[in-house]
Amino acid sequence: MKKTILFGDSIFNGFRNRQNTNLVTNLFQNFLGNNIQVINLSKSGATTVEGLDYVNYHSLK
Asked: Over the stretch 4-55, which tens digit does the pLDDT of each residue have?
């Protein structure tokens, strides 16, 4: 199965009402369908500088 990894800040994390949500993840999953697994590694307050290391770390799990 193919995977799509999302990484961003609080906007991509679906941050609403002081908590993270699956809003963005679900939107991508619905658009891409069930043949692609959507993994959202977004973090509130994240920056581009830390992004590559964070994605690489989680991709190895």
From this structure: 988 888 888 888 888 888 999 999 999 999 999 999 888 888 777 777 777 6
Number of domains in the chain: 1
Cβ neighbours around 36 below 10 Å, total: 13
Q: Residue 60: is it exposed, middle or buried by C-beta count within 10 angstroms (0-12/13-18/19+)?
A: exposed
Q: Residue 51: which domain range? A: 2-59
* E strand map for the chain: 2-6, 36-40
